[in-house]
Amino acid sequence: MQPSSLRNKRSTASAPAKVILFGEHAVVYNKLALVCAIDKRVYVTVEPLQNDTIEIFSDQYNALEKYSLKELDIFRKGDRYRYIRKAISLFFKDFDIKSGLRINIKSEIPPASGLGSSASVSVATILAMMDLFDIKIDYRKVAELAYKTELSVQGIASRTDTAIATYGGVLFINGDEFEMLTAEFPLIVAHTGKEKSTKLMVEKVRSLRERYPNIVDRIIDAIGEITKSARDKILLRDYNLGELMNINQSLLRALGVSNERIDEMIKIARKCSAEGAKITGAGGGGCIIAYTRKNIEEVYRGLSRVSNFVIRTNISNSGARIESGDE
Ligand code: MEV
């Protein structure tokens, strides 16, 4: 496809952030996960360039980087924009397209925070490219390409983050399958102030599992059982989920993905009468979630004293969507 046919076109798509309610890490070993989208989004605008350059700008890094089409898959130490470059490369291969592109990313999601910014950016980029190149919008394909992107950048990944960034709402992930649930409750999300690396945390659990397979497999199984129980409760509209969150957090601690800062924030949330609090995502930094239906203000204020990024959010039913496409 020649970019000349798209000379005046540009397309913007967005995708939501996510929080994992239950089951992170265990889901990598084919256990279950419960995840929901929240009302923070990433917006990606894509426009064609008349040369072979991919220009990427993100308001969060305030950095413009340029790559030739040949460099899309070559990652050097400290490189930015790995997910977005991989997503473009896989998309081009899949649809047999070659084109220079200018990509502009506006994000309400802090990077490396456990809120799924890499998945959201990959999903929004792929959807915007589908629109730009007049390919019939296919959300299954979006989720699939975004998952392949995570898999090749991280080496190991579940479908959790990319599925929720594509479909929004609440998803119960079971391997390659997922079930859409409905639920309504508020959540408080607070950042530890430390970026996390999903890749490193996933490797940490893998290495622990290699050293103590019998023990770690039991922890992973127990996390799977917690997730199953949480799903059963949600199906019955029983939102007493705090206790299960606290047990899940203790098991994540046992897997070695919590740390002093996370433990301290969780303690504060519980002192302020949160029903439950846990890591959300890979751990090692990033965000925690606090669950409370009655003491929102108290928990919000308590966590705001120790964190610069605390949000009150609801579940968002809006998955990835095209925001605009101009001629
Ligand atoms: C990261 O948000 C969740 C993990 O379970 C990794 C994955 O599912 O790919 C830690």
In words, what does this structure look like?
With 327 residues, the chain is α+β, with helices and mostly antiparallel strands. The protein is 38% helix and 27% strand. The chain has helices at 82-95, 117-132, 139-154, 160-167, 198-211, 213-235, 242-254, 260-271, 296-304; strands at residues 10-22, 32-49, 53-58, 63-68, 100-107, 170-174, 177-181, 186-191, 276-279, 287-291, 310-314, 321-326. The strands form two sheets. Strands 1, 2, 3, 4, 5, 6, 7 and 12 form an eight-stranded mixed sheet that branches. A four-stranded antiparallel sheet has the order 9-10-8-11. The radius of gyration is 20 Å and the shape is globular.
Task: Provide a compact summary of the structure.
The protein is built from 9 helices and 12 strands.
Key descriptive features of the protein:
327 residues; alpha+beta; four-stranded antiparallel sheet; Alpha-Beta Plaits; 9 helices; 12 strands
Layout of helices and strands, plus pairs?
Elements: E1 10-22, E2 32-49, E3 53-58, E4 63-68, H1 82-95, E5 100-107, H2 117-132, H3 139-154, H4 160-167, E6 170-174, E7 177-181, E8 186-191, H5 198-211, H6 213-235, H7 242-254, H8 260-271, E9 276-279, E10 287-291, H9 296-304, E11 310-314, E12 321-326
Parallel strand pairs: 3-5
Antiparallel strand pairs: 1-2, 1-12, 2-5, 2-6, 3-4, 6-7, 8-10, 8-11, 9-10
Residues 20, 24-25, 27-28, 116, 157-158, 160-161, 198, 202, 281-282 line the site of (R)-mevalonate.
